[in-house]
Write a structure and sequence with these properties.
Length: 113
Amino acid sequence: MKNVDTGKRKFRIAKIEVYPQYLNQYRAALSEHAKAAVKLESGVLSLQAVYDKSKPENVTVFEVYASEEAYQGHLKTPHFLKYKNGTLKMVKSLELVEVEPIGIEIKPDLLNR
């Protein structure tokens, strides 16, 4: 069942466990990476990163790309490679999950409320 017309878009969830001693460094690197990716790549439609308040070492990133090609291109960018290589020792585990949306509703001024 497909409730949302996603076209060629690619949706993923990255579930990341960070070593506690690297939490601040990791968050800074992820924030820098997400800002660069959304600003510089037209095919990166959204990168939303959050952490679990009760277990701050558990980070979840919801990723939306215009297409599989946009995602593959993203993996080759200097900012992604800087993030990936710079955080290798910080990440205890990584699980990438391909997902299909049921519904996505976002207010245009979400972050200004």
